[in-house]
Amino acid sequence: MSDSQLVPEWAVAELSSGNSSSRLAALLRSSQLSLRTLQLATVARALTEPTEPTQPEQQDQPGQHGQQTDTEQAEIADAVAALRQLSRRAPNSYAEIALAPEVGMWLGYRLPEIHRDGADWRGAVSTGHELAALAAATALRAGQDLQVTVAIRGGRIYLPTLGALPVPGVDRSGRIALRTRPELQLAPVGTADNSSRWQARTGWRRPRQLSARAGDLPIRIALDDCSPYRTVYGTEVEDQLDDVMAGEWARHFADAWELIVRLARPDAELMASGLLTSVVPLRPAADTRSTTVRDVVGGLSSTPPASGEELALNVVHEFQHSKLWALMRLLDLSEPEADRLRIRVPWRKDARPPQGVLQGAFAFLGVAEFQIRLAAIRRDRPAMHQAAALGQQVAAAVDELEASGALTLAGFQVVTAIRRRLGTLSTT
After folding, report:
1. Residue 53 has what pLDDT?
2. 398-417 burial, b if ≥16 CB within 10 A, otherwise e?
3. Beta-ladder partners of 95
4. Model confidence over 220-267: pLDDT tens digits?
5. Strands 217-223 and 208-214
6. What is the 3-state secondary structure of the chain?
7. Which of 143, 167, 251, 290 could form a disulfide with 302 if both were Cys (CB 3.0 to 4.6 A apart)?
């Protein structure tokens, strides 16, 4: 966790008060890029630097480098070097790829493996080829020439943000050589004869897009039904949307964006600045569901919405989590030694750790504010009372949180802002 001096007080105050500005958006984006770069460097070190066994009995076990052939080691080294070079030569394209939610999903799988398994990590080869795909996607966006070896999964290669491409005549896993210029080309590994190469022009399964505009504020995000890493949201992700389903998502998203811009303008501005970039569709369920993962700032998942209003509530709710996760990755809002503490909250049966309580309070406050503004427009008194009741639950939760002694100074700053917002909830 970085030192608190790296997070200006104004940024904590602005984010926790529900406001937005271009400098807050820039700070959150740059800090997330720095974090992603550090995470990618951790993966690169695990791939290229030998790791000492953590236990004496591991001395005779094969480690991560012992499982690689000389060819695989060279392929992985090439991928690591290529990504490092691209981060310097094409920083904008690198940032676009590194900040993509699906890269966060991938890191959410791979980093725990590295930290858990240490010298006995067995995922080096596949991870190296996945890193090569990340470098290839960066090179393609930047128009740079690059040759790397990438993984084939189920007869397809996958390039982050660009989609999945079938490999002709292959229906299994393996690896294949890829070159990005003068156009994307694939060839069997080790092939020197250009006649064995083929241009990858057709067959792409690209991520769908959701676009909307409300007044002067446009937004464009991915409707991700093809990333292989989206199961970080659970097993109920939708396999592939058909055109009818995608059309319903697009229609509801346009309606949702109108509401978000009208009723939650500060959040809308942050979303449109690039802090909301994808939604992963879940399979239909009896009740609407949406989730956020701490490793995937800028992304969320949701069941198919029945209306624009329902989708707007899901997006607003999860975006509060995403904003606070972005801050929590930079700054401790609760004391580390308080992680084992459990606090009761009105909206769950199980007691929650301090971070979970703060996350829930912050998210439900954002929902209550949105609901009460919507109810005021519609002159819907029952809905206004329902939103006010949700605010009371938030107040009860922060009471417990303050009494627990778990908050840091920055955490108290966030809770103080929550209380201030609660005080204006009934007059919003």
Report:
1. 44
2. bebbeebebbbebbebbbeb
3. none
4. 999 999 998 888 888 789 988 999 999 999 999 999 999 999 999 999
5. antiparallel
6. CCCHHHCCHHHHHHHHCCCCCHHHHHHHHHHHHHHHHHHHHHHHHHHHCCCCCCCHHHCCCCCCCCCCCHHHHHHHHHHHHHHHHHHHHCHHHHHHHHCCHHHHHHHHHHHHHHHHHHHHCCCHHHHHHHHHHHHHHHHHHHCCCCEEEEEEECCEEEECCCEEEECCCCCCCEEEEEECCCCCEEECCCCCCHHHCEECCCCCECCEEEEEEECCEEEEEEECCCCCCHHHHCCCECCCCCHHHHHHHHHHHHHHHHHHHHHCHHHHHHHHHHHCCEEEEECCCCCCCEECCCCCCCEEEECCCCCHHHHHHHHHHHHHHHHHHHHHCCCCCECHHHCCCCECCCCCCCCECHHHHHHHHHHHHHHHHHHHHHHHHHCCHHHHHHHHHHHHHHHHHHHHHHHHCCECHHHHHHHHHHHHHHHHHCCC
7. 290
Taking a C-beta distance cutoff of 8 angstroms, is the pair 101, 299 a contact? yes
Q: What percent of the chain has pLDDT over 90?
A: 71
Number of Cβ within 10 Å of residue 393's Cβ equals: 16
Most confident of 69-73, 252-256, 332-336: 252-256
Chain center to CA of 334 = 23
Task: Name the pTM for this structure.
Answer: 0.90
Contacts 24+ apart (CB under 8 A), 236-241: 236/282, 236/283, 236/285, 237/280, 237/281, 237/282, 237/283, 237/301, 238/280, 238/281, 238/282, 238/283, 240/205, 241/208, 241/281
Report the candidate in 111, 44, 50 with the shortest Cα–Cα distance to residue 82. 44
Tokens of 142: 């930047």
Q: Produce one character per residue of 45-55: b if its CB has 16 or more CB atoms within 10 Å, e if not.
A: ebbbeebeeee
Is the pLDDT assigned to residue 2 strictly greater than 50?
Answer: no
Query: Cα 94 to the chain's mean position, in Å?
Result: 16
- Dihedral, 227, 229, 230, 232 alpha carbons, nearest 10: 180
Query: Residue 188: exposed, middle, or buried by beta-carbon count in 10 A (0-12, 13-18, 19+)?
Result: middle
- What's residue 198's pLDDT? 67
Mean confidence (pLDDT) of the chain: 89
Q: Which whole number is the average pLDDT over 298-319?
A: 96
pLDDT tens digits, one per residue of 419-428: 999 998 865 5
